[in-house]
Design a protein that fits this description.
This protein is α+β, with helices and mostly antiparallel strands. It has one domain. It contains 2 helices and 4 strands; from the N terminus they run ββββαα. Strands 1, 2, 3 and 4 form a 4-stranded antiparallel sheet that branches. The termini are far apart.
């Protein structure tokens, strides 16, 4: 059972082959690979939910990061949970 304070962050899954979903992120320790968004329990680091980035898509409303957060948090609504985010998700 997850604790009360999960976090959302992005991570890279190392891959150096040819694939259309491979991303290059120079600021990450793993610079080439698949980008994934994770909802994880902050104290244990256990992944509660994750989503693989599959390229840019059209989003209505508040934008792509809003949609990622809402999809990752699905099933945790109304439980008194506080979700922690970094600047990537709270920026303009």
């Amino acid at each position: 059972m997850p604790k009360r304070d999960p976090s959302i962050d992005e991570a890279m899954i190392a891959f150096r082959g040819n694939h259309s979903l491979v991303q290059y992120m120079p600021a990450k320790p793993i610079k080439f690979g698949f980008k994934a968004f994770l909802l994880f329990e902050a104290k244990s680091g256990y992944a509660l939910n994750w989503q693989l980035y599959a390229g840019k898509t059209e989003h209505r409303g508040l934008g792509a990061t809003h949609q990622v957060v809402m999809e990752l948090c699905q099933g945790f609504e109304g439980e008194g949970t506080r979700i922690y985010l970094d600047r990537y998700y709270s920026g303009n």
